[in-house]
Structures are given as structure tokens and as C-alpha cells.
Amino acid sequence: MCNASVAEMLNPCLCRFFEDYKKNEHKEVKVDEFLGAELARKTITESMVSAEAFHKAHNLTRLTWRTLHIESSSA
């Protein structure tokens, strides 16, 4: 029986993903540690609020995956 948490078991896979996904752009990513779900949610929420403010300030329409999917389906 394994006593490791799911997060501990996934960390090597996640590190590998983040380190590998930029290789096609010839960029290097180094993952030192994961900082936890609470900080991730806070960061994502702040980014979404910031993006929404940017779109409103520049009178831009927000383009979402759903918008892209609908547009590509009707083409």
C-alpha cells in the first residue's frame, strides 16, 4: 500500500509536463516546487479579473473556446 498522497504521486508527471511543453519553442522551464491549490486558484482568479478589466478598458470582445468552436463549426 502506498502512503503517498495523489499530489505527491503526480508531481513528477506535472514537472515533466511543464518542463517538456516549451521544448518545441526551444525554451527551458525549471520547476522547483508546486505551491498548492489555494494559491493557484487565487492567481487564476486574479488573472481572469485582470484580463476582464483589460478587455473592458480597450473595448475588446472576449474570445473563448466556445466562441472559437461555434465559429469553426459554422464555417
Kindly describe this structure:
This protein is an all-alpha fold and 75 residues long. The protein folds into 2 domains: 1-34, no CATH class; 36-75, no CATH class. The protein has helices spanning 6-20, 37-57, 65-74. The model is unreliable at 71-75 (pLDDT under 50).
How large, in whole angstroms, is the Cα Rg?
18 Å
Secondary-structure-based class equals mainly alpha
Give helix % range.
55-70%
Mean residue pLDDT: 75
The count of domains is 2
Distance between the termini: 53 Å
Tell me the strand percentage band.
under 5%
Element-level helix/strand string: HHH
Low-confidence stretches: 71-75
**Major sheet: size, sense and barrel closure?**
none
Number of helices: 3
How would you describe the shape? flat
Number of strands: 0
List keywords for this structure.
3 helices, 75 residues, 0% strand, disordered C terminus, mainly alpha, flat
Show the helix and strand layout.
Layout: H1 6-20, H2 37-57, H3 65-74
Short description:
The protein is mainly alpha-helical and 75 residues long. It has helices at 6-20, 37-57, 65-74.
